[in-house]
Design goal:
By secondary structure, the chain is of the alpha/beta class. It has a single domain, classed as Zn peptidases (Aminopeptidase), CATH 3.40.630. The protein is built from 7 helices and 11 strands. It has a 7-stranded mixed sheet with strand order 5-6-8-7-9-11-10, with helices on both faces. A hairpin with an 8-residue loop joins strand 3 and strand 4.
């Protein structure tokens, strides 16, 4: 009976007229891993998903598994999540705010959803830590943490099929600076077909973050990704304050700067958009697609909070 159940629950994905059997949910790590202790390597148990939805015909993904709508973290110091918008599928985009100072800092994770799910885990770990240690945030500083910009991709799968949003768009190619609908894939992530969207800032998730940035006075920003390439300053060419931020991060971590150059020309990124708004910004790649590197990212958080732009 168990064998039959597992067979029935294995999701299918239709991609470019080819039917692909996704890895079983043994490969899709449980969503509650984000709440596990930071110092313990997770022991993963499979989570069975029984519900599926069918997307619109123009979407690349015809049948995807649906996991529950994410719920905000339960925090101890009344730092409750604010919903600043909703994803394409209607999942809330939760934002956490710490401090009340004039110098604003921001962390964004989960842009690539389930393909880089460990960035969501890390962001949630940092949220829990700052909640329990509020004095970490200087009196003159406010910290914003958006742990998951792409909850639809994170809900779909914790592998490459979870990278894009529900419209098949790579959100880190959708911001309205250096935007391209398609790009030279040489040296770039190329496991599945993706798009930069129908136009600059076409996706609702991107629009929510753009609106937030435009209505706040953020001075420095980290956009978390995985894996292994290092720290990428925003701007083309790299902007000066963003280079200083990248160097400061590299000094307290194992992440290389300059980053590894694969030859990819990145377009429409959050870091480049942030720089266009006068924000020192970096794309930071975690060591791999599993670990959160919590200890060194706690040091990096201190760098961000005390960075002078």
């Amino acid at each position: 009976m168990l064998f039959i159940l597992l067979f029935v629950q294995m999701p299918k994905l239709s991609l470019s007229n080819q039917t692909v059997i996704l890895a079983s949910t043994h490969d899709a790590l449980p969503r509650l891993i984000a709440l596990e202790p930071t110092s313990v390597r997770s022991q993963v148990t499979p989570t069975l998903v029984s519900t599926t939805i069918t997307t619109e015909p123009h979407h690349r993904y015809v049948e995807v598994p649906v996991s529950p709508t994410p719920t905000p973290l339960t925090l101890s110091n009344k730092n409750q999540a604010e919903i600043i918008g909703y994803s394409t599928e209607g999942r809330p985009l939760h934002l956490y705010t710490f401090g009340k100072g004039d110098h604003e800092r921001m962390i964004v994770a989960g842009i690539h959803g389930g393909d880089e799910w460990n960035t969501v885990t890390l962001a949630n770990q940092l949220i829990k830590y700052v909640d329990q240690n509020p004095k970490l945030v200087p009196d003159d500083t406010t910290l914003y943490v958006l742990p998951n910009l792409n909850p639809d991709g994170e809900a779909r799968a914790h592998n490459k099929y979870g990278r894009v949003n529900d419209n098949g768009v790579d959100l880190n190619r959708n911001f309205p600076v250096n935007w391209q609908k398609d790009w030279d894939r040489s040296g770039c992530w190329n496991s599945l077909l993706t798009s930069g969207g129908t136009g600059p800032g076409s996706e609702v998730e991107t629009q929510v973050l753009i609106n937030f940035v435009n209505t706040h006075n953020i001075e420095a920003l980290i956009s978390y990704h995985s894996a292994a390439l290092g720290v990428f300053p925003g701007g083309l060419p790299w902007e000066g304050d963003s280079i200083r931020l990248a160097r400061s991060i590299a000094e307290v971590s194992s992440y290389p700067f300059p980053p590894i150059d694969t030859g990819c020309m990145y377009s429409g990124t959050l870091a480049d958009y942030a720089v266009s708004k006068g924000i020192a910004a970096v794309d930071l790649e975690l060591t791999n697609h599993i670990d959160t590197d919590f200890d060194q990212n706690l040091d990096i958080l201190n760098v961000l909070l005390n960075f002078v732009a």
